[in-house]
From TrEMBL:
It is found in: Cytoplasm. The lineage of its organism: Bacteria, Bacillati, Actinomycetota, Actinomycetes, Mycobacteriales. It comes from Mycobacterium kansasii. InterPro entries: 4FE4S_WBL, Whib. This is Transcriptional regulator WhiB. PANTHER family: TRANSCRIPTIONAL REGULATOR WHIB4, TRANSCRIPTIONAL REGULATOR WHID-RELATED. GO terms for cellular component: cytoplasm.
Length: 94
């Protein structure tokens, strides 16, 4: 992930607790690898830190909501394609 926005920051900034996690997640905004990072963290069940703009709580919630997902990279790609197709046809995104 050589293109990651966080590659040159102190890792301690991404491993914070509580409300500080939301602030830390702003580092991920506009990151070119945000989806790949989130998928990797979800696929590997990373418990701590900010990954792909997601807090620990957000990742736990996604894992709980979608226990059937075997590959988060594939899941995210499918959802992204679905949303792009819906936007292109004028249909409401789901």
């Amino acid at each position: 992930m050589s293109q990651a926005r966080c590659r040159n920051i102190d890792p301690e900034e991404l491993f914070v607790r509580g409300a500080a996690q939301r602030e830390a997640a702003t580092i991920c905004r506009n990151c070119p690898v945000i989806l790949e990072c989130a998928a990797d963290a979800l696929d590997n069940r990373v418990e701590y830190g900010i990954w792909g703009g997601l807090t620990e709580r957000q990742r736990r919630a996604l894992l709980k909501q979608h226990p059937e997902v075997k590959s988060w990279a594939a899941f995210i790609a499918t959802r992204r394609n679905h949303h792009a197709a819906a936007a292109g046809t004028g249909a409401a995104s789901v």
